[in-house]
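Retro notes
What went well: the complex prediction finally ran end to end.
Inputs used:
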Amino acid sequence: MLTYVIRRLLYMIPTLVGVAFLTFILFTIFGEDPVRVALGNHASEQAIRDLSEMWGLNKPYWLQFYDFLIQILTFNYGESFSSGDRLSEIFARGALVSLSLTAPPFFVGIFLNITIAMLIAYYRGSIVDRLSTILFVISMSISYLVYIIVLQYVLAYQLNWFPIQGYKSGLASIEFLLLPWLIIVLVSMGPDIRIYRTVFLDQTKADYIRTARAKGVSEQRIMSVHLLKNAMIPILTNTIISIPFLIMGAFVMERYFSIPGIGDITITAINEGDFPIIKAMTMMSAVLFAFFNLLTDLLYAVVDPRIKLS
Amino acid sequence: MLLAKSHPPSKTSSKNNSSLAQVFKKNRLVSKIWSKLRKEPQFLICLVILISYIFIGLLGLLNLLPDFQERVGGSYESPKLELAKIFGTDIFGRSVLYKILAGTQTAITMGFIVTTMAIPTGITLGALSGYYGKKTDIIVTWLYTVLSSIPNILLLIAISYSLGRGLVAVCVAMAATYWISLCRMIRGEFIKHKEAEYVLASKVLGAGDFVIIFKHILPNVIHLAIVTSSLMILSAIKAEVMLTYLGVGIQDGASWGAMITAAPGELTNGIWWSLAAVVLFMFLIIYSLNIIGDTLRDVLDPKLLN
């Protein structure tokens, strides 16, 4: 187990170097010139040279990349070009906001979608099953942005149930987050329930279910005890792997409702050529992704004793 | 076929025979699949919808669609029973219908470019890494792990930004990550199939790697590519809306994303027809692609075919 974990951690190194390299190429070599963005088009040659010097952008590319690798190793990405704030602070602040946006609907969604999927699997083949399948495909065929636009217009603008957009920190944020939460839960229903339903239906064909039926276990008990336990394995792993995405925030949602989470910060940084922020966010997400990937594999082995880590 | 191949002198005749037999077998397979698909009325309707969208796209490429830049009436006219104004007009008095048709051309072109880039990449890399394993596998796995460690939307933004925010840039950005899921599936199948008896048999008979990969194993897993391509086109259409909203979408020509992005401001002024029409057009194609993908997945699965 321990050797497995250590080996997996070592495997992360080439991946992270790859991510660093890709980020570097995409943003340093092809991206906007941050000095130009900061100083505008009419800046003097001297000012441009000074700022480039200060941000270390006049060094040769390989040296800049080397600096970047050092930053990753020391977890010190420096300061934002545009605001001058420390990156660790920006990230911590943004991650908290993003989590407050994405985590509640995530948990509500899991609970709600699993329950509905189980009910549908229980009534498999019936008219309810067929109708809901069609309904979910319909709901998946509409753009996410359209949900946001229409629900904001109807619920916030016309009915005044929610504020139209904005954000306040602390507990006051709940008022602003209710509508985004609702939309996230609603949009997750179609795809998630479809996946969970398939998982449940695969399990209903298993031998242990037949055995349980033959023993005379009631159908309810089969569903809620035998089936749920086994179906939880794929569901659980599916869930854990999406946690990094919760922390990294919902880009479009944050942008639309002006919620200052990581997604919003990152998009602003891209538009302003704020390379330190982009670097930090990309690396952070890669680390989170690799870490939760490992966690999923470990958890797989814990919940399913048939799986051996090698 | 096995017997014939072990006798070198009769090689030419056996080759003819086997290829003939294969064509026959393939045709039988095609007709079998078609006879199954024919029984799915929903699939057929969706196929007709898809084909008509492709037709609109082709008309656009041949410059046969009406010019969407042209003014056909006043600013924000509500829908009227008249071809150009059936969905009303936009702020500049341009026909919403013509804009949507031009957007259809963009969407179809995009779907076509993305799939022609991502599907062959996914198949080739998946086949090579699954079949050869070792170093090839390590490199390919590393490549897609790196790409999938970066949030998809960040990568899309970054690539389309660096390539200049045009239609092609957006397509390259999408194709850069869309090949991954197919590659993973094909790789997994190749790992399973390369130990199968029929592969070992043809190896013993002296078949080269190229023949084994493309002639023997690939036909068994190609259905994955067909199903994935319909999902890929619909993700591309959906992603275009997001990218355009975030300001890195297609800047040249009309797009559904641009029309949806303009909608919030229009809605508050009571202009609903533009958004409604785009949502309807987008819904039809995405729903059709969803159904086509699902049906093909069920019908093309070789385990269920026989």
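What we learned: The mean pLDDT of chain A is 81.
What to try next: split runs per interface for comparison.
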